[in-house]
Amino acid sequence: MSSAPAVDTRVPTGNTFDKYGSTNPLVRRLMAGFQDSLEQLFERASPDSVLDVGCGEGVLTLRWAQRLQSGRVVGIDLEDPKLEAEWATRTRANLEFRAAGSEELPFADDEFDLVAAIEVLEHVSEPQRTLAEMQRVARRHLLVSVPHEPLWRVLNVLRGAYLRELGNTPGHRNHWSKRGFVRMMERHGTVVEVRSPFPWTMLLVRVG
Predict the structure, then answer these.
(1) Which domains, and CATH codes, for the chain?
(2) How far apart are CA 62 and CA 99, in angstroms?
(3) Which of 17, 122, 123, 205 is least buried, going by the fewest C-beta atoms within 10 A?
(4) What integer is the mean pLDDT of 27-50?
(5) Burial bucket for residue 149 (CB in 10 Å: 0-12, 13-18, 19+)
(6) Mean pLDDT in the chain?
(7) Over residues 147-171, mean pLDDT
(8) Residues 68 and 98 sit within 8 Å (Cβ to Cβ)
(9) Which 3 state secondary structure label does DSSP give 118?
(10) Which residue has the higher pLDDT, 41 or 18?
């Protein structure tokens, strides 16, 4: 008797609230610094095409598609009806969303100028495998960000959040200090620039 096929129980574990559209003054201040650093690194990369790995609702993906005007932009994340409903509200001729995992990207080698993973790598079970795939399909640059640890967890504890988990945000499987994250990314290319918008670490990495 054949066994039943395995069920993929993975779910997107991105934002638990709309941090990009938050009206909370503190969140807005932190996100302003985050987005300013992200914009400057994106501008330095100057891509003609972008793959956004773990794109979530597609907020950044749409912005990048608008920025590139006619340049190809693709966002991927795990299959989820709520995400797909959000994707349907963000449409452009140069923008595409797909349901796909990060461990085996359904794209050719060197297919995109820039491959991004913004607040994603802390969630994946095999970050090195994801990064290897990102490096494979990137022609010029990787753009990545993660929470700065242990600062992130300390801040959660100070605000009384996730105390039973010692400040660990639900869904965060991996934790990097700034130095540790830079060291890991050096295995996948040349680190061009490091930014530290509080409380994150953000890198632009040249591949090839």
Answers:
(1) 25-206 (3.40.50.150)
(2) 16
(3) 17
(4) 93
(5) buried
(6) 90
(7) 88
(8) no
(9) strand
(10) 41
